[in-house]
């Protein structure tokens, strides 16, 4: 679940300064007057002074193979939750793949540092309880901008709580959990460096990121094949997958 939370949050934080036009009414975002100041704090303070410098330093000193192993390790930790959510969504095949990936990568892959399972055709199936609720027909609810985390919705915030509290990911201590979260945060921010120009050039970054966020939810709930209607703008699959 870290991927969704961190990826979307960091996408939000990437945006540079821009003039914000008069706020428009958006039924998805009834709390916009509260969300925008939180957005500004995430962008102007957290990303500018903490996350972006950390990500740049991380990229500069960390060899690509080591970064790849970090991604593999943190993805493997989330595999049990991915499997449970796949089963709840009526995808027994995907659930089985995630279980098999966890067993193989935790052993042959040396605690998940190497994605051996992918090499034999078992691709990661990223699932979370927010997606599960979407598959069950639960609506997004109000759009939320969370301090230090970025964009979310009532549905996905509920899903995050279930994934991280109700469904135990793995027997990790609090320090280990914080280390894993920090690693994912920095790596996710680093992977989004190439998207900065697109975000910075948008007329209103707040609205742009909100539209990307909602399209990404459809992309995930429908496993990469969302309905074509109500798409505010075309974003390619690579862009959506990197969030």
From TrEMBL:
Range of residues in the leader sequence: none
Q: Where is this region: Disordered?
A: 224-243
Q: Does the keyword Signal apply?
A: yes
* One GO cellular component, as annotated: membrane
Q: Which InterPro entries match?
A: MlaA
Signal as a keyword?
A: yes
Compositionally biased tracts (Acidic residues): 228-243
GO BP terms: intermembrane phospholipid transfer
Keywords recorded for this protein, A-Z: Signal
The family database entries (PANTHER family) matched by this protein are listed as:
INTERMEMBRANE PHOSPHOLIPID TRANSPORT SYSTEM LIPOPROTEIN MLAA, LIPOPROTEIN VACJ-RELATED
UniProt record similarity statement: Belongs to the MlaA family.
Q: What is this protein called?
A: ABC transporter
**Protein source organism:** Pseudoalteromonas luteoviolacea DSM 6061
Q: What is the lineage of its organism?
A: Bacteria, Pseudomonadati, Pseudomonadota, Gammaproteobacteria, Alteromonadales
């Amino acid at each position: 679940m870290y991927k969704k939370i961190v990826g979307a949050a960091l996408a939000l934080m990437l945006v540079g300064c821009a003039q914000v036009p008069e706020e428009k009414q958006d039924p998805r975002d009834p709390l916009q007057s509260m969300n925008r100041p939180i957005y500004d704090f995430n962008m102007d303070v957290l990303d500018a002074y903490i996350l972006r410098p950390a990500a740049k330093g991380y990229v500069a000193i960390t060899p690509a193979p080591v970064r790849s192993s970090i991604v593999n390790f943190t993805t493997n930790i989330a595999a049990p939750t991915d499997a449970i959510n796949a089963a709840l969504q009526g995808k027994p095949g995907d659930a089985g793949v995630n279980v098999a990936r966890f067993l193989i990568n935790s052993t042959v892959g040396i605690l998940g540092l190497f994605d051996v399972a992918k090499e034999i055709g078992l691709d990661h199936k990223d699932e979370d309880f927010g997606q599960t609720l979407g598959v069950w027909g639960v609506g997004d609810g109000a759009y939320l901008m969370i301090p230090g985390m970025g964009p979310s919705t009532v549905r996905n915030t509920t899903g995050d709580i279930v994934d991280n509290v109700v469904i135990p990911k793995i027997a990790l201590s609090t320090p280990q959990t914080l280390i894993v979260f920090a690693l994912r945060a920095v790596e996710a921010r680093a992977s989004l460096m190439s998207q900065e120009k697109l975000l910075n050039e948008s007329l209103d970054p707040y609205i742009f990121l909100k539209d990307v966020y909602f399209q990404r939810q459809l992309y995930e709930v429908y496993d990469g094949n969302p309905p074509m209607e109500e798409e505010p703008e075309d974003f390619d699959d690579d862009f959506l997958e990197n969030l």
